[in-house]
Amino acid sequence: MSNNYQEKIMALWIVFLLGTLFHTQLGLMPLFHGLNVIESHTATSINQISGIMWLMLGFFALPILAIIATVFTDNRRYRVIHFGLTVFYSVLNLIHLVVDVLLPQVIWYQITLMLLLFLIGLLLNLVAFQWMKAPLRDHHRVPERLA
């Protein structure tokens, strides 16, 4: 099995983001069938939920930035920060999963998707941990076959 941790990490982040998008879309699908969506908070204007919207943007933007940084960065400090970010997302996903299971109306297809995303997050934690512990590549060394 290949040890290209950066490729694995990028693929896992992309899968995670696609799952997050589908989680949102799945929650809104009842609207397309004339049904209401479950509301946890009611608002009368977009300004009342702007804080939530900024948090959601941040939740989505950080993995995008992590993908870009993972492509271009291979230093120890970034690897440690990245691993911490993956753990942070796993904790947030677990909290979200537990809170949704405790709601009065449990939507099991959403729970199943969130459990899948949580497991993908754990795999991302594992690969990020392996990358954090892996030796840094020496980009300046001449390969033996060329020397």
Structure write-up:
This protein is about 65% helix and about 0% strand. It contains 4 helices and no strands. It has helices at about 5-30, 50-70, 75-100, 110-135. Helix 1 packs antiparallel against helix 2 (about 50-70) and helix 3 runs antiparallel to helix 4.
The mean pLDDT is 90
Poorly predicted sequence stretches spanning 5 or more consecutive residues: none
What is the CA-atom radius of gyration, in angstroms?
Answer: 19 Å
- List the secondary-structure elements in sequence, H or E: HHHH
Amino- and carboxy-terminal Cα gap: 27 Å
Which class of secondary structure composition applies to the elements?
Answer: mainly alpha
Number of strands: 0
In what range is the share of β-strand residues?
under 5%
**What is the helix tally?**
4
For the largest beta-sheet, the strand count, sense and barrel status come to: none
Query: What share of residues is helical?
Result: 55-70%
Q: What is the molecular shape?
A: elongated
How are the SSEs ordered, and which strands pair?
Elements: H1 5-28, H2 50-72, H3 76-101, H4 108-133
What's this entry about, in short?
With 147 residues, the protein is mostly helical. It contains four helices and no strands.
Characteristic terms for this protein:
elongated, mainly alpha, 147 residues
